[in-house]
Design goal:
The protein is of the alpha/beta class and 353 residues long. It has helices spanning 33-48, 53-65, 87-97, 110-119, 141-154, 170-186, 202-209, 236-245, 251-258, 269-276, 289-301, 313-319, 323-328, 338-352, and strands at 2-6, 9-13, 19-23, 77-83, 102-106, 124-127, 129-131, 157-162, 192-195.
Length: 353
């Protein structure tokens, strides 16, 4: 690994073929090689690791615990959002709009660029340029968080706002605290990591997103082809988004997003069973089984039908999961600073009353 500085740009050369380029503000920050090198090494470790994000992060923490924290006295402000084009990235952008000036950071994927163009309200957009990377290479929460950390450090930014919800599985909530711990033992720089959606669930986030029409043509949670911006309509993530949007949108409008009615797609039987939690392997991922049951209960009560849920209709009606209680719920274990919590509450009141 090598580091190269040019005017307002830091390039991390990972190999002869691969590199990452980060713009930085020379007026605000004079980068310390020790901090930049530490973060760059962590990025390389994350990209090369075939372990889970928590196991890889734990290794980074243990490696740092034996070393002294690196001093950094640069005053910092503003918040940063890593935008890769996911539905909840759009929700995070809209929540932060009313709370704080912020800088939006995006990867080099086309979906992220399109989303920021649709938003067109960031104080500053920063593009990370990747060279020599393949589409199938690792690009998970740990990698994106480390890229955001490097960007925050190089641009005098205080807050890194992720966009996962309390409805995501325990891995993400554990990651939120552990990644913040990694930053604190690595440097005393005033950089704080949290999820801006950490105290709400996936159903609430879907409700907020349902009113953001400008993002409908430029979001993608699809696990099969996220970076291209095209939703496959055949995976669990596509089906989950479809279901969680049904309480808030006319189904015909949702069909336009996916080009077909996913709840009638016979190829998604395995996916609906997983989302309902009736498979042998418990569902883990964005959202929760409870939210899926509640959304489908509301769907049936509204007079809708779908091939995928025909065999579960009686169970869904008997379970009668309340959508209202989920829309009122909050996660009090979030690491989110109070000022940002107020911004989330304001957005929820704006959407749900």
């Amino acid at each position: 690994m090598e580091l190269f500085y040019e005017s307002n740009k830091l390039t991390v050369r990972i190999s002869d073929e691969k590199s990452l380029s980060f713009p930085y503000d020379e007026k605000l920050v004079r980068p310390k090689d020790e901090i930049v090198g530490e973060i760059a090494s962590a990025i390389c470790s994350a990209l090369e690791s075939d372990e889970s994000i928590l196991t890889t992060l734990d290794g980074l923490i243990k490696n740092r615990e034996e070393k002294n924290s690196i001093h950094d006295g640069v005053p910092r402000r503003d918040a940063l959002v890593y935008v890769s084009g996911k539905k909840n990235d759009a929700v995070a952008l809209e929540v932060l709009k009313s709370s704080n000036p912020y800088t939006a950071c995006l990867s080099d994927c086309e979906t992220g660029k399109k989303m920021l163009n649709a938003y067109n309200g960031a104080k500053k957009n920063i593009e990370i340029v990747r060279t020599g990377f393949k589409e199938e290479e690792r690009d998970d929460l740990l990698v994106s968080s480390l890229l955001a950390l490097m960007t925050a450090y190089l641009n005098g930014i205080r807050y890194i706002a992720a966009s996962f919800t309390s409805g995501d599985d325990d891995t993400f909530r554990t990651f939120e605290g552990e990644f913040g711990r990694y930053i604190s033992i690595m440097t005393d720089a005033d950089i704080f990591y949290f999820s801006i959606l950490g105290n709400i669930n996936e159903l609430q986030a879907s409700g907020i997103f349902s009113e953001q029409y400008k993002y409908f043509s430029c979001f993608n949670d699809c696990e099969k082809d996220m970076r291209s911006g095209k939703m496959c309509g055949h995976c669990k993530e596509c089906l989950l988004d479809y279901i969680l949007l049904t309480p808030f949108m006319m189904e015909m409008d949702i069909i336009l997003l996916y080009t077909k009615k996913l709840l009638d797609d016979v190829t998604l039987v395995k996916e609906i069973r997983s989302l309902l939690g009736v498979d042998n392997k418990p569902y883990t991922g964005p959202g929760s089984v409870k939210e899926v049951w509640a959304a489908l209960s509301f769907y049936l009560k509204s007079g809708n039908q779908g091939y995928l849920i025909k065999g579960f209709e009686n169970n869904i009606r008997e379970k009668n999961e309340s959508i209202t209680s989920l829309l009122l719920s909050r996660n009090n274990d979030s690491y989110m600073p109070k000022d940002f919590q107020n911004a989330v509450e304001n957005k929820l009141r704006e959407v749900f009353g």
